[in-house]
Amino acid sequence: MKRMLLLLTALALLGGPLCAQEKVRDPKDKTQYNTVFDLLRAEPGVSVSPGGGDGVMPQIVIRGVGTNSNQTQPLFVVDGIITDDVTYLLPEDIYSIEVLKDGTSGIYGVQGQNGVIMFKTKSAMAAEKAAAEARKAEKKAAREAKRSKKNK
Asked: According to the model, what pLDDT value does residue 151 have?
């Protein structure tokens, strides 16, 4: 039994089949959604009440009503930052959406008890790629400097 629990924990931590799948949107695909809530309605397991226009948050349910409170709103994480309101997001700016609705939402503790919806924006992805390229260039320059120092 302990081995099974260790295996399940390891799979969850390593991003195995127990974790939610990140849904990356095709950048060439023209969006048919008017709001981010229309985009969320297309996600499996996410129930969005009618509304969500004019800057008003609709009722979003992933895991049902919480047991300790009557709160149903999931936790929203945009580019790694926890937020209460995502009405400012535009569907064409979103790179990917990940919905955590099982035990994997436990990494956010009590805040994630009703599920977690994680958004990555295209600008954040571009910044991550630029930072990765800069780190790669720094490592390459450091290696070359070390080699030239060694050859002298």
From this structure: 78
Number of residues that make up the chain = 152
Helices and strands, number each (H, E), in the chain: 3, 7
Q: How far apart are CA 72 and CA 127, in angstroms?
A: 33
Residue found by looking up tokens 């990356």 in the block = 24
State how far the Cα of 15 lies from the Cα of 152, in Å rounded to an integer. Answer: 46
Instruction: Supply angle C-alpha 11, 79, 38, rounded to 5.
Output: 95
Q: Are 35 and 52 in contact (CB under 8 A)?
A: yes
10 strand-pairing partners: none
Residue pair 20/45 in contact (Cβ under 8 Å)? The answer is no
Is there a contact between 100 and 115 (Cβ–Cβ < 8 Å)? yes
Among 40, 19, 16, 24, which Cα is nearest to 104's? 19
% helix / strand / coil in the chain, to the nearest 5? 40, 15, 45
Other CB atoms within a 10 A radius of the CB of residue 17 amount to 7
Indicate the pTM of the whole model.
Answer: 0.67
For 34, the token pair is: 């008017």
Digit-coded pLDDT (tens) for 111-135: 888 889 999 999 999 999 999 999 9
